[in-house]
């Protein structure tokens, strides 16, 4: 409803300007054909014009203004005809009829057509007299009627054609807006002349703040995570100074404290002279896709059951330690004793629960700088950094002591022990597979010695 009112206001203002030109042309025609200002009804013209101008300026009563503007050309021409029966004045009536097309409303065109016909009948009677019996006089009026009907019919076809096209465009625009709303997209424009930033309402869904909060880039930059701020500022420089398109991902802090990921696209816009006038682009909420990406990465490097790192992550971290110059590393290979009996007696779901509890206990026995992973089944690896054989033996003893406390898994009281093999590498230069094999040999030595023990592989690393 509000859009309709604004549309009428806009068209009223346009028509007011056209009518001003129409009256000026009509007055010129009147003077050129021998008329004088004395022939005009100056007070009536000024009063009518003032009313139209005031209604247009103060945006009051748009429908009344619209009807007055449709009717005013006929009232004006009737006042001219009362003193000057000039054919040119009547010709101007056709222009007045066509003016009603600006509203694209067949009812207004029909009203204007009726006023045109009544004015023509009045003009004909005044010009030819009351009898109007001559065939020429009747044919003149018939031409007017035919022209009137033709304009109305033409207007009806034109209005339906235009409204049909607009309807399709609006449906397409509605569909696009619906898509944009669903993907949480925010459009933005930064005007360099005024240093003003304009954002679409999507920024409210993204940050929880109204769009008018962000009057410049500083307000938006305040929401950027500090770690990502240099990247965003660099992108600003590339757009403004280097005039490059940018595409980056960064994090924003919402008003409720949550962190969201956004993709920022920006494009510098130049005028015909090649001068930079404004920047524009979009902000797209990619939080869900980023979370899926992080989850997939997590699954690629972690064990589903225990949440511990897997062998791939273990290998990656070992390479990083070596690149940082780490030495004196000890690798522990841990294997539960008789784990198959737990699965056979209580079922695999109890066995899985035991592995989860075991992973938690093992994690509590090492330092933050150390690394633990589930190798597979009931086998675990622990990498001790800045360690030696004595420290590794102490950790193994601490692990066996922690396992001596019974596990409680789904109301079952379970006892578990582990055999632990240790391989110490003074220079940490062996490949992971080689270190695992050497620690595995020590673990089997512990099992052969009666289980629930640890053993250290004294084999020297190959040269």
Automatic annotation (TrEMBL):
UniProt xrefs under CDD domains: GGDEF, PAS
PAC domain: residues covered: 246-298
InterPro entries, per database record: DGC-Regulatory_Protein, GGDEF_dom, Nucleotide_cyclase, PAC, PAS, PAS-assoc_C, PAS-like_dom_sf, PAS_fold_3
Protein name as it appears in the record: Diguanylate cyclase
Name of one Pfam family that matches: GGDEF
Keywords, in A-Z order: Membrane, Transmembrane, Transmembrane helix
Domain PAS as annotated: residue spans: 172-243
NCBIfam families to which the protein is assigned, alphabetical: GGDEF (TIGR00254), sensory_box (TIGR00229)
Sequence ranges assigned to domain GGDEF in this UniProt record: 327-459
Organism whose genome encodes this protein: Paenibacillus motobuensis
Transmembrane segments: 14-34, 40-58, 113-130, 142-162
SUPFAM superfamilies found in the cross-reference section: Nucleotide cyclase, PYP-like sensor domain (PAS domain)
